């Protein structure tokens, strides 16, 4: 769940914390999108953004609802397209034991059931910088 942002505006670091993303991802990906809102001022050396406008852009361009059919089989490429991670990340996580084994290995590509994918994504760690680096 996304936390409530400060009323006076929020910095990129606060946006990153609120959405569980790294500051680098927000600064280098999200804020570079053409629809990203203009800053509304500064707090210290950091620009602040209107939280309502930020939420609108995130909902429109970056939020991906996870609608996996529980019994359907999905390839790593299909999972990547729907979940916003790369197929390479899935393959690497399988090899490191951080992603479940495929439910079906017949055919040219490994496949996972939607229920398996949903559970794996729910348990996926969100990588953040340490709080003392903010």
> Which blocks of ≥5 consecutive residues have pLDDT under 50?
126-134
- Beta-strand percentage range: 5-15%
Q: Give the strand order, joined by hyphens, for the main sheet.
A: 1-2
Category by helix and strand content? mainly alpha
**Helicity range:** 25-40%
Architecture overview:
By secondary structure, this protein is mainly alpha-helical. 39% of the residues lie in helices and 9% in strands. It has helices at residues 12-19, 23-28, 51-62, 76-83, 87-95, 114-122; strands spanning 41-43, 46-48, 73-75, 111-113. The strands form two sheets. Strands 1-2 form a two-stranded antiparallel ribbon. A two-stranded antiparallel ribbon has the order 3-4. The longest helix has 12 residues, at 51-62. The radius of gyration is 18 Å and the shape is elongated. The model is unreliable at 126-134 (pLDDT under 50).
Topology (SSEs and partners):
Blueprint lengths: L11 H8 L3 H6 L12 E3 L2 E3 L2 H12 L10 E3 H8 L3 H9 L15 E3 H9 L12
Antiparallel strand pairs: 1-2, 3-4
């Amino acid at each position: 769940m996304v936390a409530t942002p400060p009323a006076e505006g929020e910095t990129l670091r606060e946006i990153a914390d609120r959405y569980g993303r790294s500051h680098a991802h927000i600064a280098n990906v999200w804020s570079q999108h053409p629809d990203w809102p203009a800053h509304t001022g500064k707090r210290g050396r950091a620009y602040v953004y209107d939280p309502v406008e930020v939420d609108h852009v995130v909902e429109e361009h970056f939020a991906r609802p996870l609608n996996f059919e529980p019994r359907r089989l999905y390839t790593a490429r299909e999972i990547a397209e729907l979940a916003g991670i790369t197929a390479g990340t899935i393959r690497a996580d399988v090899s490191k034991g951080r992603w479940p084994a495929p439910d079906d290995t017949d055919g040219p590509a490994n496949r996972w059931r939607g229920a398996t994918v949903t559970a794996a994504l729910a348990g996926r760690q969100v990588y953040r910088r340490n709080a003392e680096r903010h």
